[in-house]
Amino acid sequence: MRFLSTLAVVFFVGETYATYRDFGIPVSSATVQVQAFNVVNVTFVNGPDASLIGPVLPGRGSVPFPNYAFLVTHKNNTRIVWDLGLRADTANYAPSIAGLFTAGIITVQPGAKGMTDLLTQGGVPLSSINQVIWSHAHFDHVGDMSKFPSTTQLVIGSETNTATFPQTAGASLLASDFANRTVTKIDFSKANHTFGNLKAIDYFGDGSFYLVDTPGHFPGHMSALARVTPTSFVYLGSDTYHNAAEMRPRPEFQKNYPCPAHLVAEAKTAISTDFFWSPKTTDGAFDVVSRADPLMVASDLPTSLTADPITAGISLAKVAAFDADPDFFVVVAHDLSLRSSLPYFPKTLNSWQTSKLKQNTVWNFVDQTNPAFLLSPL
């Protein structure tokens, strides 16, 4: 099974860290404010098995993925939007993308609004947004850039394919995404930092916000490290994974965040031993504590939305070191396990550590009552 080749690479590249300083992150008192939006819930009607994650168990194919975007505000009042999510008028995507919606392959919740609508309704003028940063150029992250004034700059990874429709037949981006605005490409070959074996660029030059090179999922894919207090961070992980079971469990994670006793007990019968195993598992009784590698992996089937599953797996294993560390809260773009727990705009994520948000949610994916639970057949 090809999934296992990815898993082998993922498991053996991790390192152990104790605090944020051990990652090589410089000391700084500069911080940013991070606010989350769930732009829309998106469902792959025929299931995500061929495109996102594996294994997909019988009856678990149709999953409603959230679509998070983030407003990052620097103390100098610079405002950044990290990802735009899906555009509301899906029929106005380039034909190669719009066809997915008109054919019913992907559906969105009724009455969905775009990120620009959510910002405006929240009292954030689009003219106040200095930059939009695409973590990568998949359709569910690029939104509708034409809604922003020309003063809003667009920031993308240097490997992003900027071909546009109609100039290029089959292109997924539109000419209006780039028209009449400054577009900056981030070149990680010029990065002056390395955190946890990931190249990073100090975006503001004061240690408050770093762009991080996490290749593999899609050309130009990057993530971000936002310092929300002098000693704690929100890691915006983009599409490094789509379900928390791709990230967890791992030995260092289990050491710092042991599975709650009630979920250990529940997992014995909740998690299918026909599909998952661990050293202390017996037939019909799964032992989550002795599981040392993630329960799921990114799809590497021919129709996978992950461009390079092996490289993506290595990036994910590096991000896993942040996930295991108490100084970092990792939030990716489509983590369904967090949908009912995240404090959304106008609240901030800055107090995640004192509110115990992380420790209260990291095991949600093994909770049968959480919609992100995909570990047994229906």
Walkthrough of the structure:
There is one protein chain. By secondary structure, this protein is an alpha/beta fold. The chain is 17% helix and 22% strand. It has helices at residues 3-11, 95-102, 115-121, 139-142, 251-256, 261-270, 309-323, 357-361; strands spanning 32-44, 53-54, 64-74, 79-82, 106-108, 131-133, 153-157, 164-165, 173-174, 183-186, 193-195, 198-202, 209-213, 222-229, 232-238, 297-298, 328-332. The strands form four sheets. Strands 5-1-3-4-6-7-10 form a seven-stranded mixed β-sheet, covered by helices on one side. A hairpin with a 4-residue loop joins strand 3 and strand 4 (79-82). The longest helix is centred in the last third of the chain and has 15 residues, at 309-323. The protein starts with a helix and ends in a 17-residue tail after the last helix. The model is unreliable at 1-14 (pLDDT under 50).
In short:
It is built from 8 helices and 17 strands.
Name a few traits of the molecule.
378 residues; alpha/beta; Metallo-beta-lactamase, Chain A; 7-stranded mixed sheet; 6-stranded mixed sheet; 17 strands; 22% strand; globular; disordered N terminus; Beta-lactamase-like protein
Strand content: 15-25%
Instruction: Please tally the β strands and state the result.
Output: 17
For this structure, the CATH topology is Metallo-beta-lactamase, Chain A
Number of helices: 8
| Helical proportion, percent range | 10-25%
Q: CATH superfamily assignment?
A: Ribonuclease Z/Hydroxyacylglutathione hydrolase-like
Q: What gyration radius follows from the Cα positions, in whole Å?
A: 20 Å
Provide the spatial order of strands within the biggest beta sheet. Answer: 5-1-3-4-6-7-10
CATH level 1 name: Alpha Beta
Mean pLDDT: 93
- List the helices and strands in order: HEEEEHEHEHEEEEEEEEEHHEHEH
Number of domains: 1
Give the CA-based shape.
Answer: globular
Domain Metallo-beta-lactamase: 66-262
InterPro entries: MBL_superfamily_lactonases, Metallo-B-lactamas, RibonucZ/Hydroxyglut_hydro
Family: Belongs to the metallo-beta-lactamase superfamily.
Signal peptide: 1-18
